[in-house]
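Task 17 of the worksheet. Students: predict the tertiary structure of the chain below and write it out as structure tokens. Keep your answer in the requested format; marks are given for formatting as well as content.
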Amino acid sequence: MARVNLKVSVSGVRGTVGDALTPSLMAGFATAFGEYVGGGRVIVGRDTRPSGPMYERAVVAGLLSVGCQPVLLGVVPTPTVQMMVDEYKANGGIIITASHNPAEWNALKLIGASGIFLNHTEAAELLDIYNQSDHAYVPEDEYRNLRTVENAFDVQKKRIFAQVDREVIQGAKLKVAIDCCNGAGAPYSRAFLEELGCEVVALFEETDGIFRRPPEPVAENISKLCKTVVEQKCDIGFAQDPDADRIVVVGADGVPVGEQYSVVLATEHVLSKTPDPVVVNVQTTKALADVAAKYGCEAHFTPVGEINVTSKMLEVGAVIGGEGGSGGVIFPAVHPCRDSFTGMALILEMMAMRRQGLEQILEGIPRYLSAGCKVPCPPVRAVEVIRKLTAKYADAHPVTIDGLRLDWEDAWVLIRASNTEPIVRVFAEALKQERADELVAQFAAEIED
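Model answer:
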């Protein structure tokens, strides 16, 4: 029996190359997207995966067939495409990338005219169009010309540089190691950091689409970066994912700070200058709320998913936010999207302005330790479990917008049912590891009862 490795969600469509994710399927989704946005200009970018050029051609065919003008950027970070949609006043954008998924995957990420991802309602409308058999194909004399734009990253770079003090960063003369993961950030990261006055040690800059480390920038996958930071006596290290929208930080001691603290560090810096609301998803460390409280700012929670965070940020006028669990920093002054380059610039500016190393800065931020587990639980029962736990722990400030999050002064726990398998995930953080372990064991036992 053939495998079916295809996922269609609010994030787009993704699957394994040479299996469910066929060129005809990609062309079909591009056709539906072109209809959905009403024709016009559509920005197209991709990461470095070897299947990218093939799928790019399929996307172009789909867009042209319904009267769109594809604008090709080539290999660029995901946030570059989002900013170019805004810059060119395009009707939408398509990014061909599977983000941090393994190399055998690829995907389409779909962006609306506002430069942010489609929300659940918009994605459902698009899927309805895709499932229709009657598409609004245009005659040959209405085909638009194909356009190519070089140096699109310059738009992103200029926006970031307009929001940070380059002279202060340049004056600090920081030595930075960057792990580009052979992805879309590889052609740009070294030069970007050098323009900020940094001495740069770059790893995995090849853009042949062969990932020389696992794509997700978590601690176990960035050991070479950690070693390089120490051996080269760097002040800080950064690790990107293949589409360069998330960032993970490594201290001068070669120890990863953890993906949660990318957003925390950027928030600490921005709120110290502009104390306004912050928005993060429910999977974000309690340290973020602690930092917001220090500056007298409100921290809003959203369901997991970048579009949920960005929508809430725009609603409440948030100055900074992101997705802690993915190391995704969102700074609306540049653009309301996750962006590793913005994250790097903000953290480097903080170090330069404070004349402190990362370790000194972290001393003023609570450090939470984590634990987690999976508990077998059918979906129907998971709903009842969360309902009962919400009532039982009503004094722990329950947040039920995406599973159940409970917060105490020294710890928090998230109980969340999986969307793909009959399990409930329990994740906890606490100032002491023993407390985190105890919370996970306690709630796992309550779910199993």
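Marker's comment: The chain is about 35% helix and 25% strand. The first helix runs from residue 23 to 36.
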